[in-house]
């Protein structure tokens, strides 16, 4: 992905008496690092008290041997964050430990709750105070302060009140919970560790790294509790959403296109071949005469291979990615900043020179970086550059945990495909259709959230959303449906 989307977050949980749960959580979070690079944290319980450590930075920067040794216990949760509600500051690093009328709870959250400011105001009116500016703390404080004798009653209150996406791992002194919102917008899976322990993770790749066996995905609207007696499952709100609609699954389609690692499984499908099928479908919808196919590394590599295999055009590596450019806190000076994308990619002139090149990528968001990559490939000697995108045009913002852009910043919301082609200076530009994208996932049509492409949100959303709203400014109006999508533009345009 050239115009980088803000990844969501990665959550992890483990219940394994007798194991070093902090170390297991560290390696689980390390496998989920691609989902967020701003902060990382681990909370553990030893049955008597909670232990917590969270800081800004990558997982490998935050945790050292001496840090992990301060986190004893038989169960743990962990989090790696990309901020979607609340600023990227120390106090917002997760997990959080909250205390209230129903005791102590540690919570880690992947997703975004669009009415969190309303929920926060209601809690504040009862005297509840807050230490952060995140929707995650709102969810945690609702659980420890709301009326209800059982956890199921309290989770039912949360699910009826919270509008949005939340896959949660939660920790009490004696139990581990995994929770998905009733739409199942964000992924969460269950694994079995060494025949006795249990693991929750945002993606199955984290289970693989620990040698845990995949059991199943947490279902939409499900609460899974792990304690000394084993695993227990419940569905606190049954088959209806907070607004009264019947529950339907709405897993984020971008998980299949880009967010999840290619070695993870979603909906029973390994994502590497899913992305290869997207590339093959892209060739079927937008064929082109060319000499080589290259992918934008690493997210579009599988799709480029699929495009090449379907077309018979040779696949080549034409761009080399510096995989460490995003792993430093040292900012480039102005001269290097102006070179922009060359800090991230380096073209292979010997591969590209004199060639008609198909460049496969998974999306174009703002349209700021793609033109620089096209220019870089042309300067390396390519005679033609044909862009092929393995998703439909992104025309609407995400309210469910992807720090994408406002609608005014999305290039496809404001320009036709031909105008985008001219803007990026490609010889042709083709997007995969929504039907083709969904078909390639192997999932049932209608069981995905496609809102950023179609404008059809699975639940009511605000017309505008401010990620800093819980900090006191820019609170949105809630439960206002967005305008219906505008007529689709042509999916393919060719340079005159």
> What is the mean predicted local confidence, pLDDT?
88
Beta-sheet strand percentage? 15-25%
Sheet with the most strands: spatial strand order: 3-2-4-1-10-9-11
CATH superfamily of the largest domain: Aminohydrolase, N-terminal nucleophile (Ntn) domain
CATH class call of the largest domain:
Alpha Beta
**CATH hierarchy: architecture of the largest domain:** 4-Layer Sandwich
Task: Report on the architecture of this protein.
By secondary structure, the protein is an alpha+beta fold. The chain folds into two domains: 9-249, Glutamine Phosphoribosylpyrophosphate, subunit 1, domain 1; 270-323 and 337-450, Rossmann fold, CATH 3.40.50.2020. The protein has a seven-stranded antiparallel β-sheet, covered by helices on one side. A six-stranded antiparallel β-sheet has the order 5-6-7-8-12-13. A five-stranded mixed β-sheet has the order 17-20-21-22-24, with helices on both faces. Helix 9 (271-285) packs across helix 10. Mean pLDDT is 88; it is low at 84-89 and 472-490.
Summarize the structure.
It is built from 17 helices and 24 strands. With 496 residues, it is α+β, with helices and mostly antiparallel strands.
Keywords for this entry:
single chain; 496 residues; alpha+beta; Glutamine Phosphoribosylpyrophosphate, subunit 1, domain 1; Rossmann fold; seven-stranded antiparallel β-sheet; 17 helices; 27% helix
List the SSEs and their pairings:
Blueprint: E1 9-15, H1 21-31, E2 39-45, E3 50-56, H2 59-62, H3 65-68, E4 75-81, E5 96-100, E6 103-113, H4 116-125, H5 135-145, H6 151-161, E7 164-171, E8 176-180, E9 189-193, E10 197-201, H7 204-210, E11 213-217, E12 223-227, E13 230-234, E14 251-252, H8 253-259, E15 265-266, E16 269-270, H9 271-285, E17 292-295, H10 301-311, E18 319-321, H11 334-339, E19 345-347, H12 349-352, E20 356-361, H13 370-379, E21 384-389, H14 411-414, H15 417-424, E22 428-431, H16 434-441, E23 448-449, H17 451-454, E24 492-494
Parallel strand pairs: 14-23, 17-20, 20-21, 21-22
Antiparallel strand pairs: 1-4, 1-10, 2-3, 2-4, 5-6, 6-7, 7-8, 8-12, 9-10, 9-11, 12-13, 15-16, 18-19, 22-24
Helix pairs in contact: 1-7, 4-5, 5-6, 9-10, 9-16
């Amino acid at each position: 992905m050239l115009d980088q989307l803000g990844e969501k977050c990665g959550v992890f949980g483990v219940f394994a008496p007798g194991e070093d749960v902090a170390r297991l959580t560290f390696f689980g979070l390390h496998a989920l690092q691609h989902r967020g690079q701003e902060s990382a944290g681990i909370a553990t319980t030893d049955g008597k008290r909670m232990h917590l450590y969270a800081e800004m930075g990558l997982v490998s920067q935050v945790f050292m041997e001496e840090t992990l040794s301060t986190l004893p216990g038989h169960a743990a949760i962990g989090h790696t964050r990309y901020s979607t509600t609340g600023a990227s500051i120390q106090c917002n690093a997760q997990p959080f430990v909250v205390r209230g009328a129903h005791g102590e709870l540690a919570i880690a959250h992947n997703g975004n709750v669009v009415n969190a400011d309303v929920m926060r105001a209601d809690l504040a009116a009862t005297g509840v105070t807050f230490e952060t500016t995140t929707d995650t703390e709102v969810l945690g404080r609702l659980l420890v302060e709301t009326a209800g004798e059982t956890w199921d009653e309290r989770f039912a209150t949360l699910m009826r009140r919270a509008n949005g996406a939340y896959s949660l791992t939660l920790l009490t002194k004696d139990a581990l919970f995994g929770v998905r919102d009733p739409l199942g917008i964000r992924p969460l899976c269950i694994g079995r560790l060494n025949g006795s322990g249990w693991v929750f993770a945002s993606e199955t790749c984290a289970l693989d790294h620990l040698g845990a066996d995949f059991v199943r995905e947490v279902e939409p609207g499900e609460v899974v509790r792990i304690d000394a007696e084993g695993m227990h499952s419940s569905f606190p709100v049954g088959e209806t959403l907070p607004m009264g609609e019947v529950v339907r699954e709405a897993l984020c389609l971008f998980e299949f296109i880009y967010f999840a690692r290619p070695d993870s499984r979603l909906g029973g499908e390994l994502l590497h071949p899913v992305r290869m099928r997207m590339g093959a479908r892209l060739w079927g919808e937008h064929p082109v005469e060319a000499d080589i196919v290259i992918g934008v590394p690493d997210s579009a590599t599988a799709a480029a291979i699929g495009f090449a295999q379907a077309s018979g055009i040779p696949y080549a590596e034409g761009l080399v990615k510096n995989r460490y450019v995003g792993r430093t806190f040292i900012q480039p000076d102005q001269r290097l900043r102006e070179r922009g994308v060359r800090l991230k990619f380096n073209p292979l002139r010997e591969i590209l020179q004199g060639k008609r090149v198909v460049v496969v990528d998974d999306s174009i968001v703002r349209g700021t970086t793609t033109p620089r990559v096209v220019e870089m490939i042309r300067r390396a000697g390519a005679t033609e550059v044909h862009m092929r995108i393995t998703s439909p045009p992104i025309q609407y913002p995400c309210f469910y945990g992807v720090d994408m852009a406002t609608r005014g910043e999305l290039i496809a919301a404001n320009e036709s495909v031909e105008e985008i082609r001219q803007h990026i200076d490609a010889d042709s530009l083709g997007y995969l259709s929504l039907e083709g994208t969904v078909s390639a996932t192997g999932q049932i049509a209608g069981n995905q959230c496609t809102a950023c492409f179609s404008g059809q949100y699975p639940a009511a959303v605000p017309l505008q959303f401010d990620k800093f709203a819980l900090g006191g400014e820019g609170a949105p109006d809630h439960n206002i449906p967005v305008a219906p999508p505008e007529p689709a533009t042509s999916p393919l345009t060719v340079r005159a």
